[in-house]
Design a protein that fits this description.
Oligomer: single chain
Number of domains: 3
Helix content: 25-40%
CATH superfamily of the largest domain: Alpha/Beta hydrolase fold, catalytic domain
CATH topology of the largest domain: Rossmann fold
CATH class of the largest domain: Alpha Beta
Strand content: 25-35%
Distance between the termini: 50 Å
Radius of gyration: 23 Å
CATH architecture of the largest domain: 3-Layer(aba) Sandwich
Amino acid sequence: MRKEIHFQMKIFEYGNEQADLVLIQMVDGHSVKTIDAELDLIRQLSGQDDFRLIACRVEDWNRDLSPREAPPVFGKEGFGGKAEDTLKELQENVLMPIMASDTRKKMILGGYSLAGLFALWAAYRMNCFNGVASASPSVWFPGFVEMAEKEEILTKKVYLSLGDKEEKTKNPVMATVGDSIRRIHQIYEETDGMETTLEWNEGNHFREPELRMAKGFAWVMKLLANYEDDKELEWEEIETEHIIRDEWIDFRKSSYRYPDGRVFSPFYTYSRRDYTVIVASDEEGDYICVRQFRQGIKEVTTEFPAGGIERTDGKEYGGRDAAEAALECAKRELLEETGYVSSDWKHLITIPANATIADNYAYIFMAGKCRKTGEQHLDETECLQVVKHTAEEIEDLIRHGKFQQSVHVLAWLMAKEQ
């Protein structure tokens, strides 16, 4: 049964609305007409029937799904670069309601052609997707491969496919699609913890799109099904009391039920906003650090530049409600805390800051060949000093317990491997 919901994009829902598994697909008007056939294929290929599919039809394909403005590649219509706006609308009207209803729900984002590119690109911007199904994606799009080489995708399951005749085109830009998808697949294969595949289908770009899309969703669905045993280890949250909930923190006392039925209470957790950590080095190869007082251990520490990702509501805590991309936050924090800028950025990892008791994530970046362009512009709550260290000095600080932020030590270990 199909249910329609109208925002700027038009949303069609299929399947079990209460299902734990949600497939989200960006579509155009033609694709909506073939969703029923695609659903049958997904069921056949995955062996699963209990899922929900949300098809999001955009108004303007080239405008709404392109990550940046670009000139026409075929015909006279260029690309409007409004993917950020589309992702924001998707977040507000689809993703956030799903996560608010049950944080354990699994979401797979998928798409075909330019929508396949959008699905991949969106997974670099948000870490809520359990997998991506990208069928015949427009990875020839200007700048996408370069972005994939510098940033790390924020999901660990990615399906890629392409028709074996798609790169055999006279269009010089679109002819790069084969080499582009091979390079992207190589990047994902080299990413720690990533499960990925590149499937070659028969035919050109327009052959059997419903089947190709169904193959992608089914591949990710089967991988996720392999992790269903995790439910036997999950605790059930019974009730939660907000002990402190002000502009700075949401501190909570909860009761949980163990998998064997026993109840544990109280368990204290807190919510804070996501943040970035920047392993920054200057043109001489020295590392740019900061020293500041940390109230938890009541000591002055040496650490890397870091700072919180701005939220749309201005609060210091909450879920994934970012008003800026993690990379933009990292660039801003580096400049504000140190006066340095860089044009050489790489995302290393996104990891829970303290998975035991906190809900926020740390986005860790490297910034190379930094150059000083100005002075510090500190927040009113900041008081810090910029210092530089060689790699050997940082190693020595860590060994002697003088580089005391655990996530920053992880950042250093990740950066050393690059």
